[in-house]
Every structure is written in structure tokens, then in C-alpha cells.
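#lab-general

N.A. 3:47 PM
ok so I finally got the sequence cleaned up, no stray characters, all 156 residues accounted for. can someone with queue access submit it? mine expired

B.Y. 3:52 PM
send it over

N.A. 3:53 PM
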Amino acid sequence: MAIIAAVDSSDRAIAVVERASELSREYGVALHVVHVAEPTVDFREELIDVSADALNPEGGEVPKQRLDDLRTAAAETAAAAAADVDDLEAYEAVGLVGNPATAIKQYASEHDAEYIVVSGRKRHPLGQALFGSVTQALLLNANRPVVAVPHDRADS
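B.Y. 4:20 PM
back already:
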């Protein structure tokens, strides 16, 4: 079991990791800080299996090394988000490659996540929360609870 902090490279990622860390401590489960790199190829709703053949924009196979490089860069982005959080206990930085919503959803299922923690984008002048496409897709389609950290919390 784990708490999944799904982060991007924005400043809002810190608030996501902070909230996920709180939940991780409360539930006594592992914290996984996850970032998904999107390849230049449009893989739609598929999570890239690095052992499978994939197409690149020129129509050939994407070298396994390129997929490994993308995964490594994504893990570094996740680690950078976690590094900016004070008093963060143990965590695992995870890099995935593919469609972000699909990859996060699949990863959360594989690790029996208690929660997926994501960032809301901003607040509408009337106080309504607005979400990015990844957050919205997870809120609507994830088979486990999703916590959306409000943008105003992310800015504080």
C-alpha cells in the first residue's frame, strides 16, 4: 500500500508532496512521488511498456535507451519535487513514461494506493475549482480516492 503524489515540474508539486506526506504518515504507508514523462509520440491511453515495441515520430521503434532516459528524467523530476519539501521522511521517486492520467492510474492500482494526490490548477473568480486535464481525468476515472490540493494552498 502507498500514497501516490502525482507531480509535475511546477511549484505546485511541493504542496502535493506535502499533503501526500501527511497522508503517508497518517496511514502508516509508503510515499511514492511519481512524475510521468510524455513521449513525443501520441500513445493516447497506453502506458508504455519499455519491453514492448513502440513507434517514434519517424515510424520506427523507439530505442529502449530513449525510454529508459525518459523514465530516468521523470524520476529526477519527482525527486526534485520531494527535495523541496522540509522534513520529508522516506519516499520513493518514480519515473513513468506515457499518458500521465493512465500511467498514474495504473501505477496506483499496481501499488494498491490508498490515495492519489494531485494539484488543482486554479480557482475561478466565483470560487469554483478548475482542474487540469490530468487531474480531471483522475478525479473522474481513478478507481481509488483522489485528493486535489487546491491551487491557493499550493501558492502558500
